[in-house]
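Last lecture ended with a question: if I hand you only a sequence, what can you say about the shape of the protein? Today we answer it with a concrete record. The protein is F-box domain-containing protein. Below, first the input exactly as provided, then the predicted structure, then a couple of comments.
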Amino acid sequence: MPPRKKNDSVATSVATSADSSAYPSRSSSPSPKQSFRFFDLPAELRLQILEHVLHIGKPLDLDPYNYRTIIPRLALFLVSKRMHEEAHRVFYSQPMLLFPYSDRFFNTKKPLLSRLPPHYRAEITTFEIRLGKGWSAPPRCQKVTETLGLADCTSLRTLKIFVELDPSESFFNGFRGKNATEDTYKWFCMDLLRGLIDELPSLETVEIDAYIKRGSPLIVGLRRVVDEAQLRFVWGPLRRQEREVEEVSDMGALEKAVAGLKLDDLPRMVEASA
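The predicted structure:
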């Protein structure tokens, strides 16, 4: 038999070798990845990174969507003991709602604070409470008791109060329920604030904000409690803006009054000749 021709096979092998030399094989083993040395960073930079990762942009609360917003972040606590020590301080430094606001947990017996261990409570610096919702029948958790765990909040410095409505307004006449007067909810909120102040000796500042005006009876009563306790009082963003608008309007009225003056209206000096 005549010998086989090898020209085609030789040409194919040459082309294959040329392609393989131009394009390296993907099966080559990648270089091993090195772990990021997070704790070699300066403390200030680590703090900024942890705040970016752990802060959720709103107060901590019992919420049905916590499994999406909070639970994935808490996995950082399990990295190492040192990471837990740094991360849990940053996480609990963000504001926390003292009493639940979500409809699902609004009437619960145990707010978020009472469910935390004491060493986590000790890192909390800011509480927020919202007043107005459930005014006709306040939930059973909105009261100061020993089981709430306020005695463990040794780092707390600020209490923020947001008032959504004031049932003492005439609009609520006929809706307050049996044996309830226009001042019933106001006294309830004032007693609640007094109890919180008594249980939080490290408290320094009380901030009050509201949808309603600053002169409403409920806000006036809350501010009276703050003044009696000799704590620092500040307005929240909404009411602070109202004050700025009032100051601007007062300045405008003053400018108009000055502009309306005429030279004839000014008192003239009488020259006395000797």
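Comments.
1. The two ends are 154 Å apart (CA to CA).
2. Confidence is low (pLDDT under 50) at residues 269-274.
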